[in-house]
Amino acid sequence: MTDQISPLTLEFCGMKFTNPLVLLSGCVGFGEEYTRIKGFSNKDVGAICLKGTTLNPRLGNNPHRIAETYMGMLNAIGLQNPGAVSVVNDYLPNLDFTETRFIANVSGSTIDEYEEVTRIFDDSPIDAIEINISCPNVKQGGVQFGNFPEMSAKVVEACRRATTKPLITKLSPNQTDIMENARCCIEAGSDAFAVINTVTGMAVDINNRVPILGNNQGGLSGPAIKPIALLKVHEVYQVCKDKNIPIIGQGGIT
């Protein structure tokens, strides 16, 4: 019997995806958590994006880190991770790279850190690299890299210098002009986009009159943000459609 190619198979930045379903960063840790559930296989999805990784280990934010909201959830994990070298040495060897595509998610507090984390993953079997430009820039008073197109471009340029693997820039909805940001990132070397990251929000304990999250604010996900995600994907598509730049649409789907 001749093997049939699934109609869901597609090519993304030169990579073959068995289907268009991508598990987003943070959903299944560093790739092992999904298969801990009986009957689940990494072959079920086209790609898995690993948890956000920084150059040095991070303990993350103080509790509480999660708060349920109407039609959604706020999270403020704080990029808890063991550091890029540990991920490459201790976690990637446990993954079967024949089952699906694995994408690293890189973060940093300086442009140099982004470049170094990208370089570490470049020398690994990881298939592609997603750039989380929603991190605070410690050299610019803590403002997020992704809030300003010029700053976003500098991060992408640094990561581009460090790898030949496909670069996917994850864009935040919490910015003034996502289309201009996308243009700058393309010029800097981004091969694709992931749209959107979470929407900044807050939950309050009305009895004690204090924020529920230990970090005060967090990222809102869930069905409540789907209309925002659809709009931002549409806007970024206007920039990408004539440049053959693919988009991973995300936000409010599950």
Describe the protein:
The mean pLDDT is 95. The protein has a single domain (10-60, 82-198, 225-249), classed as Aldolase class I (TIM Barrel, Alpha-Beta Barrel), CATH 3.20.20. The longest helix is centred in the C-terminal third of the chain and has 15 residues, at 226-240. Helix 3 (149-162) links the parallel strand 8 and strand 9 (167-171). It contains five helices and 15 strands. The relative contact order is 0.14. The protein is an alpha/beta fold and 254 residues long. A seven-stranded parallel sheet has the order 3-4-7-8-9-10-15, covered by helices on one side. Strands 5-6-14-11 form a four-stranded antiparallel sheet, with no helix packed on it. A two-stranded antiparallel ribbon has the order 1-2.
CATH hierarchy: architecture: Alpha-Beta Barrel
Number of strands: 15
Q: Helix content range of the residues, please? A: 10-25%
Structural shape: globular
Determine the N-to-C terminus distance. 36 Å
Number of helices: 5
In total, the number of domains comes to: 1
Strand adjacency order, main sheet: 3-4-7-8-9-10-15
Task: Please give the structural blueprint.
Elements: E1 10-12, E2 15-17, E3 22-23, E4 47-53, E5 66-69, E6 72-75, H1 84-91, E7 101-106, H2 111-122, E8 128-132, H3 149-162, E9 167-171, H4 178-188, E10 192-195, E11 199-202, E12 204-205, E13 210-211, E14 217-221, H5 226-240, E15 247-249
Parallel strand pairs: 3-4, 4-7, 7-8, 8-9, 9-10, 10-15
Antiparallel strand pairs: 1-2, 5-6, 6-14, 11-14, 12-13
Helix pairs in contact: 2-3, 3-4, 4-5
